[in-house]
Each structure stands twice: as C-alpha cells, then as structure tokens.
Design brief:
Blueprint (H helix, E strand, L loop, with lengths): L5 E8 L3 E4 H5 L6 H8 L3 E4 L6 H16 L8 E5 L10 H8 L6 E5 L5 H15 L4 E8 L19 E8 L7 E10 L7 E2 L22 E2 L1 H23 L8 E4 L4 H10 L11 H4 L6 H11 L8 E8 L3 E8 L1
Parallel strand pairs: 4-5, 4-6, 11-12
Antiparallel strand pairs: 1-7, 1-8, 2-3, 6-7, 8-13, 9-10, 12-13
Length: 329
C-alpha cells in the first residue's frame, strides 16, 4: 500500500487567560522555584468559564484550514482526540462539525490521553490510505483544567488547556509535510499509574453525589517519569530504524510537553542537541493530547521548520499509550 499521506495545514489555539506560577503561589502551598525546577513550567493558559473543548478545537481547526487553503465543507473526516470532551454525548467531534458550519461528515471522538495527537496522525494516515480522496481534519484539544484538583500541589501546577489541528490529505501541498512513518504502542497493565476515574462507568456518580479526588488527574509521578523516558526513546528508535535514518538526520524533535526533565532526558538519550528540541512547556504547561500539535504548529508558524526538514514527533500518556512519527517537510 502506498504511503501517500500529507499534512496540508497546521493550526493551534490556546485560551487568553494565563495562570502564572505566582498565581498558583496564592492558591496552593507551592512556589515558582519549586514548579520551575521540577517541571520547567512558568505559566499555562486556562479556558474561560463556558469555553469547552470543542470551542478550542474550532479555533485550531479554523487556523489549520486557513493554512491549507481549504473550506471546511471540503473535509470528509473529523477526528477529535481528547480525554476531556464537552460531554459524554453528543461527541465533541459532532459539536465541532456543527460549529464549523458543516454536516454529514465522519466525526469521531477518541481518547488516547496525552498520546492523542500521535494516535490521531496514524489514524488519519490509515484513512487516507484507504480513501485517497479523503481530507481529514485531525484535532487534539483539551480543557484539562476541568479535571485538575487545585488542592493537589503535585498535579495542579502541571496542566494547561489548548488545541492543535492539522489537515491530512493524499496530495501534497506547498511547504507541507509527508508523513513518512509512525509506530504506536500501549500497555494497559500500567494504566493505574495515571488516572482520571471518577464519573466513568466503573466509578459512576449518582444523583446527589459529590466528586472526590478520583474525579481529577491522579498519578504516580516517579513511575510515570521512568516509563515515559524509556518508552519515548524506544519508539523514536523504532521509527528511525524503520525509515532508514538516524538521529543525526533529524532537524527537529517535537516531544509531548509533560515535563522539561522528561524532554531533556529523551533528547539526551537520542543525542539530539538542545537547540533542535521544541520546548513550549514553559509557556503552556502540559496540555495533554494537544501539546504535540501546538508545538508543531507553532514551530512551523515561527519559521523553525524549513523546507526539507526531517521532524520527529513523540508522545507518551495515560493508558499507558505512546508513539512517534517521522515527518519530511
């Protein structure tokens, strides 16, 4: 089967409100020094009251469509990767479709936690392989602060909200990328190390119940760190070997923005220089599924990705899920 999948447009969006480390110092027992040295985060963007995941996705999708020079009605598929949909039902992808002013498309929500953008990229590539005429809108969007426990000093400092989007087709566009290859993995036996359980069918809420800590993000930080580094390095090596390239050929690494220490460890083990690694965590925090899409779109819009560049994407998230993809611009 031919591998003719191309990124025709990129876009991203972060909400206007900024929550700084100084703001958090007034909310919980923490400090700017503690947050910065342990995570690399200085500030994060927070959705406004009433601003839902589909609203963030709409902004990013509109930017990606404009970059692709395409009208929304030309789309055939809408994929929205998120662990914080607007509702259980209707799907946020259908709400996004309506907000784009179109109907009758394939529209689907999928949850692969923080690896969502990489999972979505592989899914879009498969759709285009099956339907070469397809025009796929991939969005990864999160209002993760809606599932953040602001009394938990270990996790509340980490998360921000945002959306990344791309348009994938079977035909190349000017100055856009060929999706060379990808590798995607998961390990459900480790899922208990990073959870958002409350409200699911295994932990349902009844009328009159109040939410407890399980409704929010909970994680075993040290175990997540070790598995993230090992898995991200391993899957990058898989993709590079399968594509016949080495890390010396990579112009830019775009990793999931979970923790600056994780990013630094991955880049060091892959022998990728610090200057060739895209870092947005200091300004946006961990925006889960959207973080790779935001970082990639911002890097492209600011001129960090030049024609001919080889760009390696990698992510790791709850599930556990992880994956990597090689792009040729």
């Amino acid at each position: 089967m031919k591998n003719n999948a191309y990124i025709r447009g990129l876009g991203y969006y972060v909400p206007e409100r900024i929550l700084t480390n100084a703001d958090l110092e007034r909310m919980v027992d923490t400090s700017d020094e503690w947050i910065t040295t342990r995570t690399g985060i200085k500030e994060r963007h927070i959705a406004a009251p009433g601003e839902a995941t589909s609203d963030l996705a709409l902004h990013a999708a509109t930017a990606a469509l404009a970059d692709a020079g395409m009208e929304a009605d030309a789309l055939t598929h809408i994929l929205l990767y998120t662990l914080t949909p607007d509702y259980y039902c209707p799907p946020a992808a259908c709400l996004l479709e309506e907000k784009l002013g179109i109907r009758g498309k394939f529209a689907q929500d999928v949850n692969a936690a923080c690896s969502g953008f990489l999972y979505g990229l592989e899914t879009a590539r498969a759709i285009v392989a099956l339907h070469p005429e397809a025009k796929v809108l991939l969005c990864a969007a999160e209002v993760l602060t809606s599932r953040t426990n602001w009394a938990d000093r270990a996790t509340c400092v980490l998360f921000g909200d945002g959306a990344g989007a791309m348009v994938i087709t079977g035909e190349p566009g000017p100055d856009q990328a060929h999706i060379v290859d990808a590798r995607i993995h998961s390990d459900g036996s480790l899922g208990h190390l990073l959870t958002v359980k409350g409200g699911g069918s295994a932990a349902p809420l009844k009328l009159g119940d109040t939410v407890d800590e399980t409704f929010f993000v909970q994680m075993a930080g040290q175990e997540v760190f070790k598995n993230a580094v090992r898995s991200m390095v391993g899957v990058c090596e898989e993709v590079l070997e399968a594509s016949g390239v080495t890390t010396a050929d990579i112009d830019l690494l775009v990793p999931h923005q979970a923790n600056l220490r994780i990013i630094d460890a991955v880049a060091k083990k892959l022998s990728i220089p610090e200057g060739q690694c895209v870092i947005t965590i200091d300004r946006y925090g961990n925006s889960s599924a959207s973080s790779v899409g935001i970082a990639l779109a911002e890097a492209k819009s600011t001129g960090r990705i030049l024609p001919g560049a080889k760009v390696l994407l990698v992510a790791f998230g709850g599930g556990f899920t992880w994956g990597a993809s090689l792009l040729q611009f």
